[in-house]
Amino acid sequence: MDIPYNLHKMFAYQTFIQRENENNHHTYDEESEIYECIRQGDKSKMQPLLDMFVSKRTGKLSDDPLMNCRYHFVASIAVITRIAISRGVEPDACYTMSDLYIQRMDECSSVSEIKKLHEHAVSDFVEKSAAVRRNRNYSRPVRKCMDYIYENLHKRITVEELSECAELTQSYLSVLFKKETGSSISGYIRKKRIEAAQDMLKYSEYSCSEISSYLSFSSVSHFISLFRKMTGLTPNEYRKKYFRDTLNLKE
User: Which residue of 45, 113, 119, 166 pairs with 141 in a disulfide if CB–CB is 3.0 to 4.6 A?
Assistant: First the structure.
């Protein structure tokens, strides 16, 4: 079988059918505008991207509707991931989210479940981009500290380490950090650890003790107490509420 020749014939035929049905793909400029919600971190602009995911103009990748939806999900997540990284979102965080969402998609058994999961994914990536935009308002030393904290949440972090990273004295850094963020350094670290714990509870099956250990809390009881204080829920209550909402997508 002459595969290149057959593919050429199929391409010519498919192009004819699309033209006849007035069912052309989105233009590059249209797609650029559609993905603007990721670039700007603006959830109010999500709808065009969600609409594009279910549009006939996204193309036909399989005769099987479910497989077609799976392929488009992977393609959409790949593009969204790279746009988020280009806007400054931490690459490791983006790739991990991408992997987890694609793994969850593999467990979906209907097009409606995949559509709902896609909406969750877009919302998460938009929020990550929004956080980066907010951080750009900070001075370089404070941003360097924020990056250092993010990369070392699994370790004990001291003000001395951060002052070396920012190349400022500990006292001046503490004042500057509080002035720009409205939070003390220790308070900011606690907040980021709890946010990381929320993600682990939502997207993984790690136990409370494993999460507590990984994020360097002094004890499981301290982790549970602080988590409840900052979220209003215990870790188990949070997981029951949000793990189910995010991953149990059957209608």
Answer: 166
Q: CB atoms < 10 A from the CB of 92, how many? A: 11
Structure token pair of residue 111: 């097009």
Distances (CA, A) of 223 to 136, 194, 242: 30, 8, 18
Q: Kindly report, residue by residue over 208-241, the tens digit of the pLDDT.
A: 999 999 999 999 999 999 999 999 999 999 998 8
CA distances from 188 to 178, 193, 214 (A): 9, 9, 18
Q: Which two tokens stand for residue 134?
A: 């907010």
- Number of Cβ atoms within 10 Å of the Cβ of 171: 10
How long a stretch of residues is the chain? 251
pLDDT computed for residue 234 by the predictor: 96
> How is residue 223 written in tokens?
């982790």
CB 223 within 8 A of CB 208: yes
**Mean of all residue pLDDT scores within the chain:** 83
